[in-house]
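chain and backbone:
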Amino acid sequence: MRERLSTRVAAASAQRDATHRHRVIRTITQRAGVHCTVDGRTLLNFCSNDYLGLSQHPQLIAALHAASSAGGTASHLVCGHTAQHAALEAELAAWQHAPRALLFGSGYMANLAVLQSLLGAGDVCVQDKLNHASLLDGARLAGCQNRRYPHADAAGAARQLAAHPDGAALLVSDGVFSMDGDIAPLPALAEAARAHEATLYIDDAHGAGVLGDGGRGSLAAAGLTIADAPLRLITFGKALGSVGAAVVGAADVIEHLRQTARPGIYTTALPAAQAAVTRAALALVQADAGDALRANLHANITRFRLGAAQLGLPLLPSQTAIQPLLVGADADALALSQHLETRGYWAAAIRPPTVPAGSARLRITLSALHTAQHIDGLLEALTNLPRTRI
C-alpha cells in the first residue's frame, strides 16, 4: 500500500519532538541596534549575522528610501537588469580585484548555480565535510561525483583530487565556517587545486566585509588572488547588512554562468532598490568607517574570548565573529539558550542536522555595535549557567 505523505510528515514531526529538534520561528517586532523586541520582550541580540551593524545604518536606509521602484520586474536576461545592478556588479568586481561579478537572489541560489552550471556526470566536486548545505545540494543537482574530505584537511582534499583524475574538478570550501567560526586553510587548498588542475571555489559568506584589507574577505586575508581562487561567493545578508549575493571571478567563467546557470536565468532579479542598498554598504566597508567598525568587532571578539577563557567556557577555536559554545546534547543547548533569555540575552541553540550529532551548541555572534558592557553582561550571565549542562 502506498505511504501517505501525511503519515510520513506526522512521523517526522514526532521524531523531531522526541529528539528536541523541533524548530520555532521567533517574530521580531522591533530592532534598535543590537537590541530587538521578541514576543513582547527586549533582548540583547547575540545571534545575528549583521556583523558590522550595517542593516540599520542611515546610509543604507537612505538608499532604500531613495528608490523609485519596489520590485525586480523580470529576470536579468529579460528586462530586470538596471543601471543599479550593473554598477553593483562592477563595484563588487573592483572591490575583489577580479574581472567580473554576477548577481544572484541569495547565496544559496548562487552556490546551486555555480555547481550546476560548471559540473556534470564524470566530473568531481571535492569539498569540506562542514561546508554549507547549499554546496552539498549543488553537487547533488549537478549530478557529479561529490567527495567530502575531513574538516580543514587540505591534504585530505588533495588525496580526493588525486583519486579522481578524470573530468573537471572543483575544490570547494567555506572561507569562514558558519557554525564553527574557524577559517579554512586557504593557501594549502589553493596549492592542492594547482597541483591537481582543479578550480578553487570559496564561499566567503561570513568572511566578506569583516576580514582582510578593505574587508575583502578571507582570501584577501590569506594573501590569495583571483589567480589562486578563480571563483568566490560574496553574500550581502551578513556583514553588508543587505540581501542577495554575487559570484565573483574570471571573466569567461562568469559569462558562462550568466548564460547557463538556471538559478540566475529562471528567476526574477533582485529589486534595483536592494542593489542600491548593497552599493551603499559596499562603499562603507571600504571607507574609514568600515575600518573603524572592523576594529570594534575584533576588539569585541578579543574581549569575549578572554573573558570566556577566564570562566573556563568550552568555546571552539574561532577568531571570527562566530563564537560557538559547545554543549553536546540537544536538550541541554535548548535549556541554556532559554536560561540566557531569562537574563535578557538571545543566543540561539544550534542542533542537528545543522551541526553533527552530539555537538549542539550556542552560536554566539558578535557585532561591531556591541559595547564592552554588553559583552561583560553576557559573560556574567554565562557564569551563572547550570554548569552540569556544559
Summary: The chain has a mean pLDDT of 95. The chain has 15 helices and 14 strands.
